[in-house]
Design goal:
Lipocalin-like domain-containing protein, Lipocalin, single chain, mainly beta, 9-stranded mixed beta sheet, 1 helix
Length: 142
């Protein structure tokens, strides 16, 4: 009988300890704000692309540029060691806004459609005129 009561007490305590509410997981930061980004050349998630799209042709002088998005709605763009023009400033700060409900990203007033926001890649696109033969131009940050 003593063993039965001990077993019952152990089982009861196990049930109560396993039913405790888990502390809510810490909220993950918005991916856009988690790191300094560089222009991407190879898409890490092609299935997320719109039909008939083209990719922004990253110039060799842009490959070392970095983008740091801040929570205050400003993005710091560092032109890196290789500039496309010697007259370019080393850094540029531009305003940005993001609306995840409508999937709209605006950078320096220009409107883009946010296609993907993960910790590995930010993918956004701009609509192109029909005369180009493409529906949109895709930009990658990785």
């Amino acid at each position: 009988m003593k063993h039965l009561l001990l077993l019952l007490a152990s089982a009861t305590s196990l049930v109560f300890t396993s039913c405790e509410k888990n502390a809510s997981a810490p909220q993950v930061k918005e991916a856009l704000l988690t790191k300094t980004w560089k222009r991407g050349i190879q898409d890490k998630n092609p299935p997320a692309n719109p039909a008939n799209a083209s990719f922004y042709p990253v110039q060799s002088c842009e490959q070392d540029d970095t983008f740091t998005f801040a929570a205050d709605g400003m993005v710091l763009i560092n032109q890196g060691a290789t500039k496309c023009s010697q007259n370019e400033p080393q850094t540029i700060t531009q305003a940005y806004s993001i609306n995840r409900a409508t999937k709209e990203l605006r950078i320096n007033g220009q409107k883009f459609k946010l296609l993907e926001e993960t910790e590995q890649q930010i993918k956004y696109s701009a609509e192109l005129p029909p005369t180009t033969g493409f529906s949109s131009l895709i930009f990658l940050l990785q």
